[in-house]
């Protein structure tokens, strides 16, 4: 990223390397951004705005509005902060879904604060950084996929990858819901929910947090090397299992406020994509009740 100054307006420019596959991703990102920005003339949904694009010596350069740091830089967040951020993110991604798009790469690094302006706050003699605004925007539409387009079999950054993708069962918008479930958990925990680099270990971690993977999904998968007798082929006595067990604990609910967040997360981290909550439905979950009374009715349309 470069930062340019033009007529006192600061913008961000993404310069894409002059390599065929990167150029194709950039061209795809431009066409997605043209479409979604034009569908959202009044800037009501929190998707980044593309201002322009051009080519310079074979490098595609995409000009964006300038945003702040990513949410990854400010982990963890309180339940109240998560509520405010998730409401904007869900509305933005729900807008993509209504327009037949799946983002496919939702993660804290792809959710940016609109402004990084902060204050110092003193809490119990600790000085703490506090962002002035929790306004966020979703970025990186390079791998966003329209319903009619070819669906790559392997999508998403590992930690946020849905079980149907790992099991190669086919995917659609619901894989974004899974990713956002992992993102909100990370917002809450301050670290990734599934810290792994292997698919089988990833599935074992899911079982530690969420219980057994339903047998009908394991029967359907083409990845039969993950399966033994309709169960995940995993040795509970192994040293890798020790690692998995220490890093992944069942979701536990503490306060009343957390109860609603965890209830929503349970619906988002549903193994079976057919039964997983949609973002449309999630926006009506009681967790967002305080947002609905605060804002006017039309924030749902
Ligand atoms: C996505 O796939 C699931 C499972 O196959 C299906 O139940 C759901 O209706 C699909 N959703 C969309 C938006 O097409």
Automatic annotation (TrEMBL):
Pfam family, one: Pkinase
GO molecular function terms listed in the Swiss-Prot or TrEMBL record: ATP binding; protein serine/threonine kinase activity; protein serine/threonine/tyrosine kinase activity; protein tyrosine kinase activity
Record domain Protein kinase: where: 1-288
Swiss-Prot/TrEMBL keywords: ATP-binding, Kinase, Nucleotide-binding, Serine/threonine-protein kinase, Transferase
Domain of life, source organism: Eukaryota
Signal peptide as annotated in the record: none
EC main group: transferase
GO biological process annotation, one example: regulation of RNA splicing
One GO cellular component term noted in the UniProt record for this chain: nucleus
The EC number(s) this enzyme carries: 2.7.12.1
InterPro entries xrefs: CLK_kinases, Kinase-like_dom_sf, Prot_kinase_dom, Ser/Thr_kinase_AS
Family membership noted in the UniProt record: Belongs to the protein kinase superfamily. CMGC Ser/Thr protein kinase family. Lammer subfamily.
Protein name: dual-specificity kinase
Organism whose genome encodes this protein: Echeneis naucrates
